[in-house]
Inverse folding.
């Protein structure tokens, strides 16, 4: 059974640019969540998508957005990048996004210069 | 509001010694509790989870944790660690008030030396 696949693994972007990250969940999982990991703030929840609808949202500015497609694949977009957006972005998939727990991908390491 | 506290940022231990990584949480409702491990340059791997039922939970790689509702704790234990257990360990809690999003502690770095 394939795990959660995130692409690309590494990205370097310039301040002010925008970026799109991709996540393919485990087959059959309908919930996809995104987390940001930084040394200073730790792991923080960005948002969750379930059946193509945003079901839950963390405390991040509107520059962070996402979407989910009918095959459950999800994309996350960050516009007008800031240096502070440099982080490891982790995608997690779950069958129901509740009690089953989450399976995480290896992450996308974003560096903003 | 919900919160998670991992009491130790770093835990050094010798190979084959026992270890306990501490985690305390606060929540006004019933919670689900998780322990994840992260190896360098990788994502998070689920070690074990508590949803309900028996308060002693057994996970992968010989780890176990005990849910203590009165002390609002969920400490992780392993009776004998290996060099390969060196990693970052995260405790996480979710509940209905957070929409079941995972709220993570700051992590505990476990360093196992020969």
């Amino acid at each position: 059974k394939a795990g959660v696949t995130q692409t690309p693994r590494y990205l370097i972007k310039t301040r002010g640019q925008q970026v799109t990250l991709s996540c393919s969940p485990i087959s059959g999982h309908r919930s996809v969540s995104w987390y940001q990991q930084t040394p200073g703030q730790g792991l923080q929840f960005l948002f969750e998508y379930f059946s193509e609808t945003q079901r839950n949202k963390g405390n991040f500015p509107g520059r962070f957005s996402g979407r989910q497609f009918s095959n459950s694949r999800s994309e996350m977009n960050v516009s007008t990048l800031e240096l502070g957006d440099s982080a490891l972005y982790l995608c997690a998939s779950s069958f129901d996004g509740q009690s089953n727990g989450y399976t995480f991908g290896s992450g996308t390491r974003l560096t903003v210069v | 509001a919900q919160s998670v506290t991992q009491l130790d940022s770093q835990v050094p231990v010798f190979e084959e010694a026992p270890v306990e990584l501490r985690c305390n949480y606060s929540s006004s409702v019933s919670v689900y509790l998780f322990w994840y491990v992260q190896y360098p340059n990788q994502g998070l791997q689920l070690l074990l989870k508590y949803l309900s039922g028996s308060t002693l939970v057994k996970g992968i790689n010989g780890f176990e944790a005990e849910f203590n509702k009165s002390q609002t704790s969920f400490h992780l234990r392993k009776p004998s660690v290996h060099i390969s257990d060196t990693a970052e360990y995260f405790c996480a809690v979710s509940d209905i008030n957070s929409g079941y999003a995972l709220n993570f502690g700051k992590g505990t770095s476990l360093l196992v030396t020969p």
